Amino acid sequence: MHPRLTHRGPWLDHDGELPLVEGTAIRFQVEHLPGDRDPKPVWLWSSVTDASAELVDLLWQAFLRRFDLEHTFRLLKQTLGWTRPKPRAPESADRWTWLILAIHTQLRLARPTVEDHRRPWEKPVTKHL
């Protein structure tokens, strides 16, 4: 695959004809999605030409890891209020980040301990998976 570069971004000041960048296009598609949704293919591009099957496996798995990390940070920012305080020093921001991560980890680890503590005569809560 040869993506065509355009005269914008890092190539804005480039004089002359723009180069063609060779690489490998990787298409993967899941078999099914929750809720009977129609799965659409995902296209990835790598600057490696003639990628082996092992490298293609590594590349799409790395994409999934990156996807997981991005959603983890989204959770931390939106749900756990990671970006609410406005620390003035980088050290304060680092401490706040580690504090949020420690709290989130403790909550996740404590989950089975506090699941459903009821009196013997009370009905247990039904679990939704």
Question: Could you give a quick summary of the protein structure above?
Answer:
Helix content is 36%, strand content 8%. With 129 residues, the protein is mainly alpha-helical. Strands 1-2 form a two-stranded antiparallel ribbon.
Word description of this protein:
There is one protein chain. The chain is mostly helical and 129 residues long. 36% of the residues lie in helices and 8% in strands. It has a two-stranded antiparallel ribbon with strand order 1-2. It is flat. The protein folds into two domains: 1-79, no CATH class; 81-112. The mean pLDDT is 81. The longest helix has 26 residues, at 53-78.
Q: Which helices and strands occur, and which strands form pairs?
A:
Blueprint lengths: L23 E5 L13 E5 L6 H26 L11 H21 L19
Antiparallel strand pairs: 1-2
- The total of beta strands comes to 2
SSE arrangement, N to C: EEHH
Shape: flat
Number of domains: 2
**Which percent range fits the helix content?**
25-40%
Please outline the major beta sheet: 2 strands, antiparallel
The separation of the N and C termini measures 42 Å
Radius of gyration: 23 Å
* Total count of helical runs of at least 4 residues: 2
Unreliable spans are none
Structural class category:
mainly alpha
Strand order of the largest sheet: 1-2
Identify the notable features of this structure and list them briefly.
36% helix, 2 strands, mainly alpha, 129 residues, single chain, two-stranded antiparallel ribbon, 2 domains
